[in-house]
Amino acid sequence: MRKIFFTAFAVAAIIFMFTVTENLRVENSEPEKIFDTHEPSHEKILQKQPENWWETNILTATGHGTAPEAEEVTRRTKALAKRVAMMDAQRKLAEQIAGVHVTATKNLVKTQVEAVVKYFTVVSEDYDEFGNCTVVLSVPIFGVNSVAQFAFPRVDKKNFPPPIETVNASGNYTGLIIDCGNLELNPVLSPEIRDENQTIYAYDNLERQKVLERGVVGYVAKKSDEDLIFVKTSGGKNIFAQIGSKIFVAESNSRAGNNPLVIKVSALNDDGTCPVISTEDADKILAENQISHFLDDGAVVFKSNRIRGMRM
């Protein structure tokens, strides 16, 4: 009887010690589990998704760094998390820079990408309660220390070709809008406008400094169900208006101005990057430019219902 009693007591003691040990293990492991599985909130990630470069003329990248395990958040743990976040953001920024096409077949080479990344600006730097860091970095497409500085080498400037046929020009146009309709337009930094015989507008027709400041052309989304063009963003909504309307004239920030010459495209060449127009339309553009010089100023906009990579 005494043997049975001691055996039961021993079993009970073992079960008790196992239970206490397991509870302690779980309690001690919970902070580690939180650190290992912590991720930034989905909402914050969505808020910092990069826009299309042709919409904002800027590239942004978000980097995340997890703080090392520690009993408390310190300046050192935050610094370590920031270092990881910065490396993450720079890597993502380099990928975006490498993904911007100069032409349909040309991108920046590795050494150029690495040079551009060095010019990053810190847009924001945030920490959560655990010391994990989120940073947002950016580099401009155009301007000082931009992608454009490496995408556009110095070249000998060429004159625009003369019109093939004589055209009566009005001289009243402020710019040029190339309407690609439902053709899928592929934005690149250095597109061309061509007719059936020749190139009538390209980088080597322009002054390099002007191109570095705002590019060869601007891109704009056209509302597909109506013949409207994007004017501005107001109250978080995109505002569209008809070209020539009072709203367009008063509010448009288009680089083509408030009285643009609008030309419809017949085709897109070079993987959707270069519009092709008729010889008659090319003559019209070239004749008007001889008076108004809007091509010289780069006052050219490509618009389309379908822009590759577009988020509306």
Give the tally of structural domains.
2
Count up the helices: 9
Distance between the termini: 83 Å
Low-confidence stretches: 1-9, 14-50, 247-252
Q: What does the overall shape look like?
A: elongated
The largest β sheet comes out as: 6 strands, mixed
Note the beta-strand portion.
15-25%
From the helix content, strand content and strand pairing, which structural class follows?
A: alpha/beta
Helix content: 25-40%
Using DSSP, what is the number of strands?
Answer: 17
Radius of gyration: 29 Å
The pLDDT mean sits at 80
Order of helices and strands: HHHEHEEHEEHEEEEHEEEHEEEHEE
Main sheet: which strands, in order across? 12-11-10-16-6-13
Chart the SSEs and their pairings.
Blueprint: H1 2-37, H2 42-47, H3 53-56, E1 58-65, H4 75-99, E2 101-103, E3 106-107, H5 110-117, E4 121-127, E5 133-140, H6 147-151, E6 175-179, E7 184-185, E8 193-194, E9 199-201, H7 208-214, E10 218-223, E11 228-234, E12 237-241, H8 246-251, E13 260-264, E14 267-269, E15 274-276, H9 279-292, E16 300-304, E17 306-307
Parallel strand pairs: 6-13, 6-16, 7-17, 10-16
Antiparallel strand pairs: 1-5, 2-3, 4-5, 8-9, 10-11, 11-12, 14-15
Helix pairs in contact: 4-5
Which key terms come to mind for this protein?
9 helices; alpha/beta; 312 residues; Dodecin subunit-like; 6-stranded mixed beta sheet; 2 domains; 3-stranded antiparallel beta sheet
Protein architecture, described:
The chain has 312 residues and is α/β, with parallel strands linked by helices. The chain has two domains: 45-150, Dodecin subunit-like (2-Layer Sandwich); 172-307, no CATH class. The protein has nine helices and 17 strands. The strands form six sheets. The chain has a six-stranded mixed sheet. A hairpin with a 4-residue loop joins strand 14 and strand 15. Helix 4 packs across helix 5 (110-117). The longest helix is centred in the N-terminal third of the chain and has 36 residues, at 2-37. Residues 1-9, 14-50 and 247-252 have low confidence and may be disordered.
